Amino acid sequence: MINVGIVGCGYWGPNLIRNFMSCPETELLWACDKDEKRLKKAMRQYSGVSLTVDVDDLVADESLDAVAIATPVETHFRIAKACLENGKHILIEKPFTLSLLQGNKLVQLAREKDLQIMCDQTFCYTSAVRKMQEIVQSGVLGKLLYFDSVRINLGLFQQDINVIWDLAPHDLSILDLLIDDKIVSVSAHGLSHAGNNIENIAYLALKYENNFIAHLHVNWLSPVKIRRIILGGSEKMVVWDDMNVTEKIKVYNKGIVVEQDDQEKVRQFLISYRSGDIYSPHIDNTEALALVVKEFAACIEENRPALTDGKAGLRILQVLESAQKSVKTDGSNVPIQDVMEI
Amino acid sequence: MINVGIVGCGYWGPNLIRNFMSCPETELLWACDKDEKRLKKAMRQYSGVSLTVDVDDLVADESLDAVAIATPVETHFRIAKACLENGKHILIEKPFTLSLLQGNKLVQLAREKDLQIMCDQTFCYTSAVRKMQEIVQSGVLGKLLYFDSVRINLGLFQQDINVIWDLAPHDLSILDLLIDDKIVSVSAHGLSHAGNNIENIAYLALKYENNFIAHLHVNWLSPVKIRRIILGGSEKMVVWDDMNVTEKIKVYNKGIVVEQDDQEKVRQFLISYRSGDIYSPHIDNTEALALVVKEFAACIEENRPALTDGKAGLRILQVLESAQKSVKTDGSNVPIQDVMEI
Amino acid sequence: MINVGIVGCGYWGPNLIRNFMSCPETELLWACDKDEKRLKKAMRQYSGVSLTVDVDDLVADESLDAVAIATPVETHFRIAKACLENGKHILIEKPFTLSLLQGNKLVQLAREKDLQIMCDQTFCYTSAVRKMQEIVQSGVLGKLLYFDSVRINLGLFQQDINVIWDLAPHDLSILDLLIDDKIVSVSAHGLSHAGNNIENIAYLALKYENNFIAHLHVNWLSPVKIRRIILGGSEKMVVWDDMNVTEKIKVYNKGIVVEQDDQEKVRQFLISYRSGDIYSPHIDNTEALALVVKEFAACIEENRPALTDGKAGLRILQVLESAQKSVKTDGSNVPIQDVMEI
Amino acid sequence: MINVGIVGCGYWGPNLIRNFMSCPETELLWACDKDEKRLKKAMRQYSGVSLTVDVDDLVADESLDAVAIATPVETHFRIAKACLENGKHILIEKPFTLSLLQGNKLVQLAREKDLQIMCDQTFCYTSAVRKMQEIVQSGVLGKLLYFDSVRINLGLFQQDINVIWDLAPHDLSILDLLIDDKIVSVSAHGLSHAGNNIENIAYLALKYENNFIAHLHVNWLSPVKIRRIILGGSEKMVVWDDMNVTEKIKVYNKGIVVEQDDQEKVRQFLISYRSGDIYSPHIDNTEALALVVKEFAACIEENRPALTDGKAGLRILQVLESAQKSVKTDGSNVPIQDVMEI
DSSP of A175-219, one letter per residue? Predict the structure, then answer.
């Protein structure tokens, strides 16, 4: 049994609380929010949990194994650092921290203290993404060719981070899970229409080492809500349409066949087209966050990195920082260093 | 009555022929294709048209006013030049020519000879685009913010041009028609998966002078066919979904309201959201090409530039050349010169 | 302030409880369920409400103004009767009672006691139906011609009532609200596939006095979920697609124009077709049940029949009974008496 | 090689002509239409075919093996009779004849003369229906439970036949092909809104011997175009959505499992639900009419009944006549005699 505390009872916190309460491997000891009214409202229906407006109460409680941090991103580093220094494992919301530097410090601290950092990259635990992972790993797609994501809506204009930091982490965490290739460089174009220099529409192109490209369109100012990922392979292709209630994932037996030939002139006859069946696997209804909480408990008990550990968080931060640099320099190609060597 | 000849009876030619035959302002005198069998097949159902495999027969016919050129792009310049030098107006398929330089020479030649060049940018004459133009010109969209186009399919892999030259001209001609702002630079990312260095997937970002961005996703290797354009405005937004048979155009009364305020801290309360009705105007069924042919006859008779004249063709060529340069230099930002000053 | 009690805390009860708690015009005094565990679970997050497993506690409480009944249908009559006899207004779930006879007795009892019976025909309070009602009342549809509803799904096979009694009340209540014409007869066809003589698929045809027809397809055994109503008018037509998240209601400016003419032979030239714009009004997100609760409080305070009062419930029962008779006699046409005269 | 003539060059005739011209097993000798202008226009692009306005020219030509009849339905009987009497096989458009009596006479005449009658039930030759047939015959659907068809549109109001005779033959021919069970009775409800007593909306319920029901909704006055058939089976279900360009056929691995049990009380626990994968087989693009023409040639050459022979036509006529009787008697159940015994 893992004794857990939570900091931050705003938008996402209550979902974590509900899942910690129902998870048999976790016991929620503390809930904390600096806004007492919000704290009480969030905890009204639960009993047996200590409430506080002071995060230090959690840090100081020696019986506490782990802390989930669901506060605004600018507070992540400070709270996480205090928790780690006091021997607590952490589960942290996206984006991990405000900078790669902060993230790195936390990862090193955790390593020194032999503690787990898990990033709550919730999408990686959805049934749809797990099904996509299963499909990719089965090899049926052939060689992976490209990843195209459109994640647009008339969404909430954030005031502290732009649309890249707000929405791209979802796709970047999925890419990190699915694609076994290294990102070489990032180029991002964006625009701010609210007069505050915070981009509300952006396009990211990620070049990989092995002739693979990932492209993201993130947008808070679209009249239509689209959440669609296309993953093109040489043998089959997968489309995830998250707005489709009943057929989220479709596998298309479609593609081209390219035959190598020396004679340039006849090459045009050597590309042929396949158009076959479409298959939409059943997707179960398990709540992703229940699996997040379960994995958090498991990685602590088994003393192993979580599926979405701190290093995964760093890899995403690195792309975000590079994209940020690119969007502010008119889409220049920003190379990605190997973060693991830092 | 305009006497017309056509060169090229392959994929697109027969459509032009049919429309020249039924247009009351044009009379088709000549049809030409170097492949006699294809020529005869295309003309089987028509009588009273002279057939030839030699384009010089058209060039030499003094009674001929105009020539429509529907041959492969690498022959455009040579044929068009011969026609213009011999006093014939020309209608020319997309892409206009293989290079801006060629296009410029043709436009100058036409100016010297007082002849019309019309580019067959067919999409500009579709009911949907004309409706979009009407909506833009009415001003109801407010300030235009962005243009996002997705034009993807499991499409024919061309052997002579990449997916940018094949598909982007459609969007570029629509942009040229709708957007009254100047393109500053182009950045393009693409990849070739057929091993022939011809990109089959590409993303283009076009930056404009006045805080407007246009983005194009063109792709021959998509499992799903999508042809969708979003045009975001400050007051309303338009979506054109060409795959939707009955509701191609939708106007969304959606957006944000940003109020200016000096106090940074309260700014977050000053963005509010509007979500109103959706309106899908009836789109008539007029064939776009019938309007192309009509406009071609009209611009000749009225001795005025066509809606999609040679200069429009040059503006598109310039973006294509810049995009080509960018895609071959890893997405570098390629500035656009003012082509009209060349 | 209306003092309310609720009986039945199973599937629908908790929704009523939540709305009674948040409605400023109602105060929830009692919650009752014969299953104490279910009762406690449902009320866990609320305080200040008396709990009981015995409905007589509510009946006996003189301070109680009204009772909401959300128990299985076979208990409706007994509980409602006790409540009315003890001076309590009632809000009752669909279907109203097991028979028209029972319903009639309750309505008469309420009349004698000067109490309100309100039937919780929730769909009538949805934003979509209220918008349809607004459209119908505005007269823009012209003469109403037909109503076609498809309400199918892989739904829960009920054990006590067939698919007609389970799903048709939704459509019948909408018809009762929208259509100002009288039903003359009902014909129903159905089939049971579970071997229990309880129909799981049924088709109902309702003939009206004035050349209007309503048709319902209700089905628990469909692989796809469809909830779509078409309301055809002579001038315009409305389609309500409840599965469409963003465009639930569409108004089509479509139809035919029939001109009267004496000459039979030329009649074929006198039907012309209109195909115009489509308009999808914005539908607000108000929870229907909040309006149900508000209307319940209002009809008691203002001592007037609710929008969906007991008589509306009787009219629906009458169609259900007739449909039941018809489905058991191979679709024979069962005439509808004027229930109000009973 | 079968020598063929065609009568009727209006709406459907040109499609037949084109397919007879391209079919290697048929040679078109004659084309006939009483309207000479229409005849010439239809045949403009073809040479080597004799044209006539007099059907007797075809009847009298001894070298002619077969005649395709694509004239208005009221002329079918007279023309077909003359052809059969003169030794010609016939291919005839839907509906077969104006009455079962007429159809019967033609079938008997053909039998006496040892000639083939083929009904052009085109839908039976579409790739989608052939795929459905393949699925049904494979047995994967389990026991067939119901067939639900919606075939509605803002369609052409016919002047000689109602919407049942116009649209229901499509579904009835598909039912005749797919369902190996006998129709017991038909009930139809309909309404005429054009003031001419010709129904423009109708609902047909067909009861079968073995607990199977087929239901058809046909409608010329719908604002939306829907062509969807659901075929429910005990193991799987098929949906054919003809408006879906890329996924016309979907097979749903969905259903219920009913376990028999003696104890009434626990029955509710014995129905369980399955919700599995969805599979959309690739549908080829073969034109259905090419297969019709091929089958016509084949049944003549092989001297065997066509897949959709005269008897199939009679079975459909019988349902149409019964439906007509029912719709004019307020939906009364009209029993179906075994037409084959007539």
Answer: HHHH--S-EEEEEEEEE--SSSS--SEEEEEEEETTS-EEEEEEE
A neighbour chains, 3+ CB pairs within 8 Å = B, C, D
Q: Check CB contact of C246 with chain B, cutoff 8 Å.
A: yes
Q: Which residues are registered as beta bridge partners of D228?
A: D150, D241
- What residues does A243 pair with on adjacent strands? none
Own/partner pairs, B104-110, CB within 8 angstroms, 24+ separation: B104/B314, B104/B342, B105/B77, B105/B81, B106/B77, B106/B80, B106/B81, B106/B310, B107/B310, B107/B311, B107/B313, B107/B314, B109/B81, B109/B84, B109/B85, B110/B84, B110/B310
Helix, strand or coil for residue A147? strand
Residues forming beta bridges with residue C207, ordered by sequence position: C185, C213
Look at the block and give the residue holding tokens 């909704």: D217
pTM of the prediction? Answer: 0.94
Q: Report CA dihedral (B70, B71, B75, B78) to the nearest 10 degrees.
A: -40
CA distance D109 to D77: 12
| Cβ contacts of C257 on chain D, cutoff 8 Å | none
Structure tokens, B318 = 């310039």
Determine the Cα–Cα distance for residues D48 and D50; give it in Å rounded to an integer.
7
Distances (CA, A) of C159 to C73, C192, C198, C324: 12, 12, 8, 16
Residue B136 — φ and ψ, nearest 5°? -60, -45
Q: What is the ipTM for the molecules in this complex?
A: 0.93
Alpha-carbon distance of D139 to D136, in angstroms, equals 6
Mean pLDDT of chain C: 93
Is the Cβ–Cβ distance between C86 and C110 less than 8 Å? Answer: no
Mean pLDDT over A24-50 rounds to 94
CA end-to-end span of chain D: 35
Show the DSSP H helices in chain D as ranges.
Answer: 13-22, 36-43, 55-60, 76-85, 100-113, 127-138, 163-178, 288-301, 310-327
Query: How far apart are alpha carbons C213 and C206 in whole angstroms?
Result: 6
C243 close contact with B: CB closer than 8 A: no
Residue among C74, C77, C83, C81 at smallest CA distance from C32? C83
Chain A with chain B: Cβ pairs closer than 8 A: 140
- Cβ atoms of A5 and A29 within 8 Å: the answer is yes
User: What is the DSSP-derived secondary structure letter of residue C72?
Assistant: -
| CB < 8 Å to A44, chain C | 45
How far apart are the C-alpha atoms of B288 and B282, rounded to whole Å? 16
For the segment D4-17, the average pLDDT, to the nearest whole number, is 96
Query: How many residue pairs from chains B and C have C-beta atoms closer than 8 A?
Result: 28
DSSP C323: H
Q: How far is CA C304 from CA C20, C116, D156, in A?
A: 20, 7, 49
Instruction: Give the 3-state secondary structure percentages of chain D, helix then strand then coil, rounded to 5.
Output: 35, 30, 35
Is the predicted pLDDT of residue D179 greater than 60, yes or no?
A: yes
Condensed to tens digits (0 to 9), the pLDDT of residues C96-148 reads: 999 999 999 999 999 999 999 999 999 999 999 999 999 999 999 999 999 99
Q: Does D282 touch chain A (CB under 8 A)?
A: yes
| Chains contacting D (3 or more CB pairs within 8 Å) | A, B, C
Contact B195 A260 (CB under 8 A): yes
The DSSP secondary structure of A263-317, one letter per residue, reads -GGGGGGSEEEEEEEEEE-------HHHHHHHHHHHHHHTTS--TTBHHHHHHHH
For residue B229, how many other CB atoms are within 10 A of its CB? 25
**Binary contact (C44, A45; C-beta < 8 A):** yes
Q: What are the structural domains, with CATH classification, of chain B?
A: 2-115 (3.40.50.720), 124-285+319-341 (3.30.360.10)
Using a CB-CB distance cutoff of 8 angstroms, which residues of chain C are in contact with residue D150? 150
In chain C, residues 3-22 whose CB comes closer than 8 Å to chain A: none
Sign, CA dihedral C321-C322-C325-C327, equals negative
B275 touches chain A (CB under 8 A): yes
